[in-house]
């Protein structure tokens, strides 16, 4: 920890500032880059009915409303009396309004009136082994889905309530968050009581006593409202069983977006710990294990995805908080019928999303009771099957209990159970789980019209009513997949069967021998409707809407594969242009695989990586990226080159490339990209032309339960055409992702950087050296190989090794260390830039002050007349006492601000004290330098004037020579404290903004924890002068020998810096307040001990050593 050399050439600082500035500029460019959204706006006729409080209740600042959809005027009181639906309470987020309930509430009303969605027979997502828990059988899951599936009409409607939280910023202050959770508990009780009051009123007038009262409320929260909902569930005053289902929209669960306030972080941890303990069994006094308190609660977290810059998917994850049997985390981009990433606000009004959520909530209603289902497994089955896409199960990215049994084993099981028989209750053939229901009409094929494919590629260009048959033994090799991409709807437009070895060509008519796999097809978004190339001509080929994948295990034991196409419905006049397609392909997945290493991926920054896919290529092209697309987003471009058409058969001898491209678009379906990232989930990009592939994951953060951190891109491209795929890293998007994902980590590391600088300054005093500037200390900390590699990668590796023993899945070590190093350099650049800017300001201010002070020095030397006016003697005594103990008076004043106003106000006052001290010290240093220069000038003039006494004689004394250097050291040290406490005050800035916003509504005392910690910071800032840094109380000589000087506050700064570094890596920068408060407590303790030893009236600054002993280097 030697003192660095002070020089003008600080290239390391320049590089750090350049890196920080470049990432910030690129990030801002990425944030402002327009993102095309596919969300459809939701329209409504909103009406908000106030729910009155009981007669014995006192009105507060919050209120409760009931939503009503309609444009006609209604009687509010009569409408409240008619309450009979399933209660749902909407909780707005940070700065949100209760009126934000209108989109999802209006869509719920329309969904109830219109009934369940049209039946589509795509494969539904199933439980993973972790979600299934004791239910490890696929048949049990299928039966459970059949029981909860609504038919014809929903059993009851939803009554949507909303709490008005006055638009307070709950994401900025923990105290506000606690108040919101308390009011939500009261609102839940008020809603349930209101239903009872309404039923009692109806019973008095109509004698209606047969209704079932709701006993629980569904909570739906947006942003911080989702966390408030979870906080209300574990609130001690909530009635048991009052909340059993919680749905959150873009809500943080694992960590808040602004985890910089101590009380905020403590409340967040308290709620999460309560949830973790709530799913554990408790042993009673009799030795029996009781049911976990939260075992009946189901939580669903819907994340916005990569476009949500405020709440990332990692924050919205329930991993480690809610067990998979009771919790589901799903991204909007991987939701059924949605497949879109949404930003933080559009998730509330995106029609595709709110429609799907509305139908899912309506399916939670039990047909017998008309209220919410009691079984948590049934509710989880509804959410999983209606929200999560089956594509991850189709490609084995996500394990599923429904994919454990291959199709080849279904036939043997069907024979034992009675093949071909129907389950009369649910109208499902027992010959397999992927067969179409018998209620769906289908005309049986005529074997004589079958078309037998001679190629491993099968094509359907229209609904001709014929059946395509492929010989598996001849066309498929060992290890081959069969993949079918089509826009025909399963069961109604296309059906797929596997025929056993006993089947013969021309005799595929006994369907009892075949195994149907139609509903094994997974849905993908179709994208925009293709336009016609010319009026009345052929349209561009339609985009696929479904994909069916059969693995070698599924094909084993079968001889033929048949694809039956329904005939086109008859229409009058000319038939519409063909818009139906299906392409099936047998191929080996190893042939269509490409891996991009980190080196090759980084090389695309300078040179685009291109891949040419020739004709007859695999229908699926697997592109594996070693680095997550959340860290290095890719700009992916796919262009068609040819489509196997010879120019000699065209009417035009030499067609232009654009004309050939039009022909290819009419023959080949548009490319589709399926992007899978384990921590983030699924995203589908239909009609791919040129798109930035970015996923909302963070490889340097703990989290994923399944798979690796690598991103997989499956390109679904028509094998009839050849394509050129281009890849390059999108630097602006990568920079914006870096700032949004690792902002909290950078904040914690910035505090550590300042503490490391203060450590070097304190160590310089202990070694009797000149105190270096903050910029010089940062420059020294960036030296390679030491201490940069020791402080950045070294500490990251230690933190990684200590954290792998936790409950979360650790990320790859290389990614974690690499990103942590970049964050540390970025933090050094930010702190160095603040130090340079503050130095420039203080230098300019001191220059101006010294200039005017010397200019008007004669005026200051004039004698002043004494003020003969009398004043209060008591006031004089108070002023005299305050002057005798200025630090005590200042500490008392700041403490009042900390306790009764706001913690950040006290820190702002402390910053003003630091700024004044810095300015005063630097001004005195500059004044001394100016006087020295004037003295030397007078010495040169003396011989000519013959003078014997000059100002230079006075300034040549030892005290005068070191007077300026003492103030320079004071300025440098105070500047370090200024930067440290500036970061502390900035971290409390969001809380201050929330306090200002609600100051006109109702005043409340600051959090006690925040006040106590900030009081410790104030003690550190006021009482730790430069002389204190010279105190030694850590005997390093006992450990490293007598040549090593004893350590004092340099040791404490170093330990605090290491703690803040680890807090930053853990995305908990608020923990830095504990370290800073501890430094203040140690400072106050040493101060008190020294005063006890030296006497209360001792001059504490007398401990300052003589600066002549400094070793200048």
Automatic annotation (TrEMBL):
The chain crosses the membrane at residues 12-31, 739-759, 788-805, 825-852, 887-916, 977-996, 1008-1027, 1047-1068. The keyword Transmembrane applies. This is GPI inositol-deacylase. InterPro entries: AB_hydrolase_fold, PGAP1-ab_dom-like. Belongs to the GPI inositol-deacylase family. Its EC number is 3.1.-.-. One of its GO terms (cellular component) is endoplasmic reticulum membrane. One of its GO terms (molecular function) is phosphatidylinositol deacylase activity. The keyword Methyltransferase does not apply. It is found in: Endoplasmic reticulum membrane. It is an enzyme of class 3 (hydrolase). The gene is LOC112280244. Pfam families: PGAP1. Residues 83-363 form the GPI inositol-deacylase PGAP1-like alpha/beta domain. One of its GO terms (biological process) is protein transport. It comes from Physcomitrium patens (Spreading-leaved earth moss). Involved in inositol deacylation of GPI-anchored proteins which plays important roles in the quality control and ER-associated degradation of GPI-anchored proteins. It comes from the Eukaryota. Keywords: Endoplasmic reticulum, Hydrolase, Membrane, Protein transport, Transmembrane, Transmembrane helix, Transport.
């Amino acid at each position: 920890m030697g003192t660095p050399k002070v020089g003008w050439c600080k290239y390391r600082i320049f590089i750090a500032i350049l890196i920080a500035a470049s990432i910030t500029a690129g990030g801002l460019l990425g944030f402002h880059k327009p993102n095309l959204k596919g969300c459809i706006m939701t329209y409504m006729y909103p009406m908000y009915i106030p729910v009155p409080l009981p007669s014995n209740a006192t009105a507060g600042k919050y209120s409760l409303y009931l939503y009503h959809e309609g444009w006609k005027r209604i009687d509010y009181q009569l409408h409240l009396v008619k309450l009979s639906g399933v209660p749902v309470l909407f909780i707005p987020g940070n700065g949100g309004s209760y009126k934000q309930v209108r989109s999802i509430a209006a869509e719920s009303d329309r969904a109830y009136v219109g009934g369940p969605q049209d039946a589509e027979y795509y494969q539904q997502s199933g439980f993973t082994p972790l979600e299934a828990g004791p239910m490890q059988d696929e048949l049990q899951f299928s039966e459970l889905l059949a029981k909860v599936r609504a038919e014809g009409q929903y059993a009851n409607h939803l009554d949507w309530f909303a709490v008005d939280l006055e638009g307070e910023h709950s994401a900025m202050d923990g105290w506000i968050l606690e108040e919101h959770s308390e009011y939500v508990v009261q609102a839940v009780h008020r809603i349930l009581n209101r239903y009872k009051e309404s039923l009692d009123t109806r019973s008095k007038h109509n004698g209606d006593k047969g209704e079932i009262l709701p006993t629980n409320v569904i909570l739906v929260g947006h942003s911080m409202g989702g966390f408030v909902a979870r906080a209300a569930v574990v609130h001690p005053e909530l009635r048991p069983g009052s909340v059993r289902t919680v749905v959150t929209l873009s809500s943080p669960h694992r960590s808040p977006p602004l985890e910089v306030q101590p009380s905020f972080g403590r409340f967040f941890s308290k709620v999460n710990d309560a949830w973790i303990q709530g799913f554990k069994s408790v042993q009673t006094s009799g030795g029996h294990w009781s049911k976990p308190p939260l075992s009946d609660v189901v939580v669903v977290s819907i994340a916005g995805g990569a476009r949500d810059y405020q709440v990332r998917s990692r924050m919205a994850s329930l991993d480690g908080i809610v067990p998979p049997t009771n919790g589901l985390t799903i991204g909007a981009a991987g939701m059924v019928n949605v497949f879109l990433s949404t930003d933080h606000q559009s998730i509330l009004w995106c029609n595709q999303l709110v429609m799907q959520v509305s139908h899912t909530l309506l399916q939670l209603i039990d047909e017998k009771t008309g209220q919410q289902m009691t079984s948590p497994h049934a509710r989880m089955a509804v959410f999983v099957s209606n929200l999560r896409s089956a594509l991850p199960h189709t490609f084995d990215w996500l394990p599923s209990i429904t994919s454990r049994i291959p199709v080849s084993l279904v036939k043997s099981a069907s024979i034992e159970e009675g093949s071909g028989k129907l389950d009369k209750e649910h109208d499902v053939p027992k010959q397999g789980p992927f067969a179409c229901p018998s209620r769906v009409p289908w005309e049986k094929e005529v074997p004589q019209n079958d078309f037998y494919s001679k190629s491993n590629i099968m094509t359907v260009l229209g609904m001709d009513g014929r059946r395509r048959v492929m010989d598996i033994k001849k066309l498929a090799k060992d290890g081959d997949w069969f993949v079918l991409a089509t826009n025909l709807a399963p069961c109604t437009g296309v059906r797929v069967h596997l025929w056993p070895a006993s089947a013969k060509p021309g005799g595929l008519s006994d369907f009892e021998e075949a195994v149907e796999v139609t509903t094994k097809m997974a849905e993908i978004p179709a994208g925009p409707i293709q336009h016609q190339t010319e009026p009345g001509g052929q349209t561009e080929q339609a985009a696929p809407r479904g994909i069916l994948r059969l693995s070698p295990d599924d094909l084993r034991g079968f001889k033929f594969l048949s694809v039956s196409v329904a005939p086109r419905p008859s229409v009058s006049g000319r038939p519409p242009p063909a818009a139906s397609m299906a392409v099936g392909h047998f191929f080996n997945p190893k042939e269509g695989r490409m891996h991009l290493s980190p080196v090759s991926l980084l090389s695309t920054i300078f040179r685009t990586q291109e891949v040419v896919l020739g004709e007859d290529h695999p229908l699926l092209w697997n592109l594996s990226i070693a680095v997550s697309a959340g860290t290095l987003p890719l700009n992916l471009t796919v262009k068609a080159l040819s489509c196997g058409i010879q120019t000699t058969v065209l009417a035009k001898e030499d067609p232009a490339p654009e004309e050939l491209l039009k022909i290819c678009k009419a023959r080949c379906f548009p490319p589709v990209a399926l992007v899978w990232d384990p921590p983030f989930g699924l995203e589908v990009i239909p009609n791919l032309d040129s798109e930035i592939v970015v996923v909302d994951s963070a490889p340097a953060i703990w989290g994923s339960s399944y798979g690796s951190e690598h991103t997989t891109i499956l390109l679904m491209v028509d094998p009839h055409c050849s394509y050129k795929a281009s890849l390059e890293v999108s630097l602006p998007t990568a920079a914006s992702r870096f700032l949004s994902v690792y902002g909290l980590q950078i904040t914690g590391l910035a505090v550590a950087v300042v503490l490391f600088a203060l450590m070097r300054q304190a160590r310089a005093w202990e070694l009797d050296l000149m105190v270096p500037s903050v910029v010089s200390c940062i420059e020294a900390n960036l030296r390679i190989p030491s201490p940069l590699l020791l402080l950045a990668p070294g500490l990251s590796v230690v933190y990684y090794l200590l954290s792998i023993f936790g409950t979360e899945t650790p990320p790859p070590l290389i990614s974690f260390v690499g990103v942590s190093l970049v964050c540390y350099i970025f933090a050094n650049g930010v702190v160095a830039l603040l130090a340079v800017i503050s130095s420039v300001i203080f230098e300019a201010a001191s220059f101006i002050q010294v200039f005017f002070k010397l200019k008007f020095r004669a005026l200051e030397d004039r004698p002043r007349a004494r003020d003969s006016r009398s004043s209060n003697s008591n006031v004089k005594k108070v002023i005299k006492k305050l002057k005798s103990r200025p630090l005590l008076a200042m500490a008392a004043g700041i403490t009042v601000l900390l306790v009764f106003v706001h913690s950040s106000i006290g820190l702002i006052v402390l910053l003003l004290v630091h700024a004044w001290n810095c300015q005063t010290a630097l001004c005195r240093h500059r004044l001394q330098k100016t006087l020295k220069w004037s003295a030397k000038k007078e010495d040169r003039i003396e011989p000519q004037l013959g003078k014997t006494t000059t100002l230079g004689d006075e300034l040549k004394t030892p005290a005068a020579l070191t007077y300026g250097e003492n103030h320079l050291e004071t300025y440098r040290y105070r500047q370090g404290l200024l930067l440290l406490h500036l970061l502390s005050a900035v971290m409390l800035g969001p809380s201050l903004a929330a306090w200002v916003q609600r100051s006109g509504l109702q005043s409340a005392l600051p959090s006690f924890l925040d006040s106590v910690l900030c009081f410790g910071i104030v003690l550190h800032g006021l009482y730790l002068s430069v002389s204190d840094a010279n105190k030694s109380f850590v005997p390093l000589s006992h450990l490293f020998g007598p040549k090593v000087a004893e350590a004092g506050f340099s040791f404490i700064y170093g330990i605090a810096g290491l703690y803040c570094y680890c807090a930053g890596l853990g995305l908990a920068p608020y923990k830095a307040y504990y370290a800073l408060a501890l430094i203040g407590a140690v400072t106050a303790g040493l101060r008190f001990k020294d005063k006890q030893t030296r006497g209360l009236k001792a001059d504490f600054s007398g401990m300052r050593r003589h600066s002549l002993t400094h070793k200048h280097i």
